[in-house]
Design goal:
Blueprint lengths: L11 H4 L3 H22 L1 H10 L20 H7 L17 E6 L9 E5 H17 L7 E4 L12 H7 L2 E3 L6 H11 L3 E4 L1 H13 L12 E4 L8 H11 L2 E6 L9 E2 L7 E3 L4 E6 L13 E7 L10 E10 L11 E7 L4 E3 L2 E3 L1 H9 L4 E12 L2 E10 L7 H16 L5 E6 L14 E3 L8
Helix pairs in contact: 2-3, 5-6, 8-9, 9-10, 10-11
């Protein structure tokens, strides 16, 4: 189909649909997918029966609250049982054309299967996000994400379907990727926020000025929280002279499920595919839009493995108010992972809050490492940072400034701040960076 290149919408009817109409469509899809899951996935048949609920109980969107939650443990416990794809799968294996797996960073890797229709709709959503951030057929795009079983790998097809010239970069070594960026002069790249920062630093150290010698106009980041942290996003933008847009995805559903628009006020989530709830992390009580809690997703159109009330482990909130860009789909705001949050002196601390402070300070590189540990039977944290080579202040001065800034932003000072020379921290990675080490031995309940 012909497409107006000047339109900022990939699918204007869908993206600007009045919420009443959007929610009507969600309800129709919800009724269908809950019925399909009950009739075809052994786990849902058993769990719904045990909970005393049935598909016919869905009469409004809020009726989903009657149904039981699932989580990563559910996926691991049911994987491989009854069939290769497990008891959550609702289609025969011959209908599955693609599987990805989770990283396994919080347990055994879990598979995410797709039917042909699932996969095609997944890629149409990726095209929508690419178009939303301004990608057009004239762009050259480098997809610098892992292709090895990672659900974000195939997202490049969404860019191809849009018409962009695509370079399947994958996990190239930095030197090779910089060669690609300098030789082919692509305009858009997608990678993790930490690697975007590190790649820019490596470019400068190798004599390449990202602003002058390269042609990157837009950087997509995902996989870590940095793209939604104002200080981190601005630092990357200043380094590259490019616009940075954050994307959010789950291996459990598909590549990018949500993406920033030009307003950069949260990430629009594909509500035609996902019903969003926010629940209290302790009680599971459903919260009102705008309240912070654990995000719970129900897939509305994915048939290979429907997810009914999946507790994501991500802490955040959803904003359903109108966005200045004109899109009506809600925007999610992510604060951090439930697994990463720790409590110091009754204050909930997220690594993203610490990152926001570190990336906003001058005289340090922006690299950091958090250590969480026990001291006198209470939880403490320390922060390790790097001092820029041209910073004339003493380590003690830098440590005090950092501790004071963290106290002002978070409410609790770190037990200590350790200052390393530039390059002294082993946190740089070409993908996700490991920035928190939990040394506690006691059981802490969030």
């Amino acid at each position: 189909m012909s497409r107006d290149l000047n339109s900022k919408f990939w699918n204007e009817e869908l993206e600007t649909m009045p919420r009443e109409e959007l929610e009507k469509r969600q309800l129709e899809d919800l009724k269908e997918i809950v019925k399909f899951a009950y009739e075809n996935a052994p786990y849902y048949k058993r769990s719904f029966d045990e909970a005393g609920v049935k598909p016919e109980d869905i009469k409004t969107l809020k009726d989903i609250q009657k149904f039981p939650f699932i989580d990563k443990k559910t996926q691991r416990d049911t994987q491989g049982k009854g069939s290769f794809l497990g008891e959550l799968c609702a289609v025969p294996e011959e209908d599955v054309v693609f599987i990805s797996t989770s990283s396994g960073s919080t347990g055994v890797p879990t598979m995410s299967p797709f039917t042909k229709k699932d996969f095609d709709e997944f890629q149409d959503t990726e095209s929508r996000w690419f178009w939303q951030i301004g990608m057009r057929p004239k762009d050259r795009y480098v997809h610098a994400l892992n292709f090895s079983l990672y659900v974000g790998g195939p997202d490049v097809i969404g860019a191809q379907n849009l018409g962009a010239l695509c370079i399947w970069g994958g996990t190239l070594p930095s030197e090779r990727l910089l060669f690609v960026l300098k030789t082919y002069q692509p305009t858009i790249i997608w990678t993790s926020p930490s690697y975007a920062w590190q790649l820019g630093e490596k470019a400068l150290k190798s004599g390449i000025d990202p602003k002058k010698d390269l042609n990157i106009k837009k950087i997509i980041v995902a996989g870590e929280l940095g793209g939604s942290i104002d200080a981190t996003r601005k630092a990357i933008e200043d380094l590259w002279g490019a616009e940075v847009y954050d994307f959010y995805g789950l291996s459990d559903i598909f590549g990018a499920c949500a993406a920033m628009c030009e307003a950069k006020d949260g990430l629009h989530i594909a509500e035609n595919h996902i019903l969003v709830e926010t629940v209290d992390i302790h009680t599971g009580e459903v919260l009102e839009p705008g309240q912070v809690g654990e995000l719970v997703f129900t897939t509305l159109r994915k048939h290979a493995r429907p997810l009914i009330r999946f507790r994501t482990g991500d802490i955040g909130w959803i904003d359903n108010t109108p966005c200045s860009c004109g899109r009506t789909h809600g925007r999610i705001h992510i604060s951090g992972r439930k697994d990463d949050m720790f409590i110091v002196s009754a204050v909930n601390v997220f690594p993203s809050d610490i990152e926001a402070v570190i990336r906003d300070m001058s005289g340090i590189t922006g690299e950091y490492l958090i250590r969480v540990f026990e001291k006198d039977y209470t939880c403490k944290y320390s922060v390790e940072i790097e001092k820029k080579s041209d910073n004339q202040k003493s380590d003690d001065e830098i440590a005090k400034e950092t501790a004071d800034a963290l106290k002002a932003r978070i409410g609790v000072k770190p037990y200590s701040v350790v200052v390393h020379p530039d390059g002294g921290l082993d946190t740089r990675s070409e993908h996700k960076s490991r920035r928190i080490i939990d040394e506690r031995k006691l059981d802490y309940v969030i």
